[in-house]
Design brief:
Shape: elongated
Strand content: under 5%
Strand order of the largest sheet: 1-2
Largest sheet: 2 strands, antiparallel
Number of helices: 11
Structural class: mainly alpha
CATH architecture of the largest domain: Up-down Bundle
CATH class of the largest domain: Mainly Alpha
Distance between the termini: 93 Å
Helix content: over 70%
Length: 254
Amino acid sequence: MEVGQIQQRRLSDNIVEQLESMMLDGILKPGERLPAERQLAEQFGVSRPSLREAIQKLAARGLLVSRQGGGNYVTESLGSSFSDPLLDLLEGRPEAHRDLLEFRHTLEADCAYFAALRATEVDHQHLREAYEVLQACYAREGGSRAEEGAADARFHLAIAEASHNIILLHTIRGLFDLLKRNVVTNIGGMYALRPSTRTMLMRQHQELLEAIIEGRAEDARRHASEHIDFVREVLAERQQEEQRRSRAKRREKH
């Protein structure tokens, strides 16, 4: 029997694998700068030449970007499922917002379920912090819708991170800008139609947070679904109201 020689793995390949895992796990985020080479080499317990070789391999694959005198960065486009031109196209189409809510209904329910099963104490802390930022936005009368939209999206992103499912995480992360715009577009009409909407959203987010932290997976899934169902219900009511007003105006002109 002929036996081939076992190829010894290069140290730089081990470093590449470690950095890839950090990107997949969401530890290194799109656009984030890596620590300085000396610091990163010390953390990994490797030489700087081996680290540089790993960085060059990742840069060649488009996962890292090296800037002259400015360090190494995770590529901005990592996980960007929706480009800015597509966002602009989607923003003006009501059916696109409806479709996104349908998509979120399934996706975020699963995120909440797995987060309740798998979240660590660190995840719980990040969730509480994201929740507190969102609650602060709700508490400010006349606050910025853009800030509220970003805080809402970050809270749901924190749930995806706590799910410890890398596919769910990067899908939600790729939708982040679209989620922000979806919330901003929705909340104005919702608040105008139902003054109690803000209070209801605050309660729903609190129930969702508590279910995840207490490990009640089925309750977390249910609260996530009920939250999206509520938004869909109010938006459908808003659309019906707009249609009634449009018909009334046409009759008046006729």
